[in-house]
């Protein structure tokens, strides 16, 4: 690898909706290029990618897999990315390091919308991309209809480079729209050139004209040729395609059937001839991609191997990476070229390579790494997705509790879209993620990799309580045991505060009736009581004032005053009309405008309060609804939102305020709470 020219490398992310055929396409790309001699099948669990137990169990990609091959002296690294929206973070983190992306989709018009978030990400990051319409044997709509639908979700013009040849319903070949050469597919070998079918001449001509006109929007010379009816030379068309694709101005479209290797060779040709070299990609990101000079890398993914070793998948942006190099103060402990889960040790890697580095302790996904002490501007990284689905988790074996936090930290390093916390009020350990499958995969990993089987339940809602009215109350604690006694005596005013004001403690003691040194004891007693109010929840928005009291010169103590305060609170608080408060979230729901009314119904049907909605700036055809939503209604919100919006709707949330629980719900909340054994007794 050492003398390799930077131009001879391509790294390509394979992305697309769930089950569109990405892993199958990678298998085919590796087979056609000779990297593997026998193709595996997703259904048989023997593909190069998706080799983890969690992937195989579900026959779906749950993390990014890398694989290398060579074709016509070009080194290709492919990143097979998960399609499920619940694993989108993996895809986004990997895309950040890709020179180009292939979007794999199915030829079904109704499903094209599921591509919208992906197109948006690629457009925002200006990552050159092409489309591979897979499963053409299952085409529910004709090619031009699919193309038309795809154009609606892409902000860049789509440009078909091929036209399908069908026999009855079967796809038997394609026409290359640059050369106007027709081909028939053959299992196990490259497609054969054949004469252009007469019945397709017209359609082919129209599709080609459309392709050329789109290209001419970026090239005046080509435009002149078209206006003068000159057929442009193929070289000129190819040059334009390369220039415009590299600049992420157009999206070429290819077609085929990955499980038969149909259409895979032309796709490879396009990657080699049209996709940008790492030099172009790095230059566009403001880096100097020469092989000598400072080394700059970015971590695209962190793996922990079944043996517990850390592997960081990195893209080399600048300079050379050598084994043992010190990166951000940490020594690279081995460099590996990956083939799914298989690792092959190598000595070095150059600009454009995507390789794994061993033992980079403390280095996280997204980090920019360098071997110099100079100040290097960190490369941009994908935003961390806000978690939207939670489960409370408990180790099946209590003795495993101590191991849990270190296993969870590793889990989060592998998958930054997970999050965990121990809730301050409920004390539950809560695992947050992107959906049900996402969390199930995380729980599988805890069980398999860390030997930590867990039980799960729905997290408790962190209700609070407050009071509606005031009272004055007297508490006296008097205790005589053998020698010293204990004596504390307080008068408290308990008053409600406005929402959000929290807890306030004051004292208006005159003449030292409660000596200064005992007053902190009173406050502690009040605070301790308030952690568990008359309804069983932490109390907020309350003012307690110590107004009077008395003491005993021998028997009084801070402890005794604490007890007196607790007694006063226990007696007084139930008289103050306690009321339950629930957390209210401020949410923004994003979805294609055709689903906005459904999103509004979903929110109002869950006791939400709509604040407004508007089009998302920079995202044609998408709306954003802002609303308040009780946290108690959030549990399955994402699941319903996705099922109403073809899986693409999403929401962001943050805690906003506490609000009184409607009377009709209070009873059931209290019954549940007390049934959990958490009620106050
Ligand atoms: N009919 C047909 N089926 C295909 C084709 N390509 C792939 N498949 C099947 O489609 C299913 C999904 O394929 P995968 O390769 O796992 O899809 P994926 O996009 O990697 O899936 P995720 O990564 O989980 O999103 C498998 O059963 C494949 O055998 C094709 O060209 N035609």
UniProtKB/TrEMBL annotation:
Biological processes per GO annotation: ribosome disassembly
CDD domains reported for this sequence: EF-G_bact, EFG_III, EFG_mtEFG1_IV, EFG_mtEFG_C
Protein source organism: Gloeothece citriformis (strain PCC 7424) (Cyanothece sp. (strain PCC 7424))
Keyword entries, A-Z: GTP-binding, Nucleotide-binding
GO MF annotation terms: GTP binding; GTPase activity; translation elongation factor activity
Annotated PANTHER family: ELONGATION FACTOR G-LIKE PROTEIN (PTHR43261:SF7), TRANSLATION ELONGATION FACTOR G-RELATED (PTHR43261)
Database matches in SUPFAM superfamilies: EF-G C-terminal domain-like, P-loop containing nucleoside triphosphate hydrolases, Ribosomal protein S5 domain 2-like, Translation proteins
Pfam families (UniProt xref): EF-G_D2, EFG_C, EFG_III, EFG_IV, GTP_EFTU
Name of this chain's protein: Small GTP-binding protein
Keyword GTP-binding assigned: yes
Residue ranges annotated for the Tr-type G domain, each copy included: 7-279
